[in-house]
Amino acid sequence: MKARVRPSFYLDIAAQELWLLEHAGSEITDRWHEELWNSIEFLERHPLIGRERLDLKRKGIRSWRIQGFERWLIFYTVETDAIILCRVVSGMLDLRLLKFD
User: Fold this and answer.
1) How far apart are CA 54 and CA 67, in angstroms?
2) Other C-beta atoms lying within 10 Å of the C-beta of residue 36
3) For residues 62 and 29, is the Cβ–Cβ distance under 8 A?
């Protein structure tokens, strides 16, 4: 199964990488980016493994933690032919306020 990416997912990546650069440095940022894409490849092979998020407003949203960076969550949905990557944010946020396009 292939991944399709929503624009908000790319915006989240940029915001998270900027935060990491400022607070943790380039080595950690590069490792975060690599683990993000490793996690996405894993989800492409196992799309239903993520926890279904019944606590969020939009139905069908699932979440999965980035390996080695468990504070960050990938939010996605599963369609018949693809996973749709919606958001990637810190789990420290009030997730009920997240918007999914």
Assistant:
1) 23
2) 21
3) no
What is the tally of structural domains in the chain? Answer: 1
The pLDDT tens digits for 25-59 are: 999 999 999 999 999 999 999 999 999 999 998 89
Strands (E), 1-101: 2-5, 51-52, 62-66, 69-78, 82-90
Q: Is residue 100 part of a domain?
A: no
Q: Would the pTM count as exceeding 0.85?
A: yes
Domain with 47 in it: 2-91
Q: How do residues 16-27 score in pLDDT, each as one tens digit?
A: 999 999 999 999
Cα atoms found within 13 Å of the Cα of residue 2, Cβ hemisphere only:
3
CATH number of the structural domain spanning residue 70: 3.30.2310.20
